[in-house]
């Protein structure tokens, strides 16, 4: 894994660092997925606009149509011209174009959005692979700690034995040594 051009050995990180990295990667994945969804919805909207321009060409001037104000609210209107359309080019700017230029503009815009979406999907895949690697290292470290704990308890159990007491019950007894240093 690379962080600002430096390779990081995941197995050299502590548990808290790994959990922090896992959390950060999860947040990154969520943000990139949200961005991808926004790009996808935007490209679908622009594709619909392009197909609307295509159907406008087949219409007649003066023909009555329903114009969408929102997704669920439409008003009556009449087609003023089948020769040109007004296209929203962003940040409050509108440009009058021929229908062919409007369709071409929509296709170019959708193509750019799909390229951006492909780039974000590559980043998402990379982040998912990194998250899988981090989860694997966390799992491996937890298994190692569990194995060490079991080994330690076996070693302790081999030093301890049950001995009978005067009242007939048993007590745990053994020799425990502490390293001196």
Overall pLDDT confidence: 83
Total of helices: 2
In whole angstroms, the N-to-C terminal distance is: 40 Å
Share in helix: 55-70%
Structural class, judged by helices and strands? Answer: alpha+beta
Q: Please report the total strand number as a whole number.
A: 8
The backbone outline, from C-alpha atoms, is elongated
What oligomeric state do the depicted chains represent?
single chain
Low-confidence stretches: 172-178
Major beta sheet summary: 2 strands, antiparallel
- Elements, N to C (H/E): EEHEEEEHEE
Radius of gyration: 33 Å
Strand neighbour order, sheet with most strands: 1-2
Strand content: 15-25%
What labels would you give this structure?
181 residues; alpha+beta; two-stranded antiparallel sheet; 2 helices
How do you describe this structure in short?
The chain has about 180 residues and is an alpha+beta fold. It is built from two helices and eight strands, in the order ββαββββαββ.
């Amino acid at each position: 894994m690379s962080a600002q051009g430096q390779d990081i050995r995941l197995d050299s990180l502590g548990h808290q660092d790994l959990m922090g990295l896992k959390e950060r990667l999860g947040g990154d994945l969520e943000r990139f997925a949200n961005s991808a969804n926004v790009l996808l919805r935007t490209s679908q909207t622009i594709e619909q606009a392009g197909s609307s321009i295509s159907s406008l060409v087949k219409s007649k001037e003066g023909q009555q149509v329903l114009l969408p104000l929102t997704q669920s609210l439409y008003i009556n209107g009449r087609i003023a011209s089948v020769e040109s359309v007004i296209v929203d080019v962003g940040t409050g700017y509108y440009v009058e174009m021929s229908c062919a230029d409007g369709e071409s503009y929509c296709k170019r815009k959708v193509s750019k959005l799909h390229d951006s979406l492909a780039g974000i999907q590559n980043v998402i895949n990379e982040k998912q692979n990194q998250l899988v690697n981090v989860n694997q290292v966390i799992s491996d470290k937890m298994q190692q700690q569990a194995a060490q704990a079991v080994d330690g308890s076996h070693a302790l159990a081999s030093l301890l034995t049950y001995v009978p007491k005067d009242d007939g019950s048993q007590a745990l007894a053994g020799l425990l040594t502490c390293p001196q240093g």
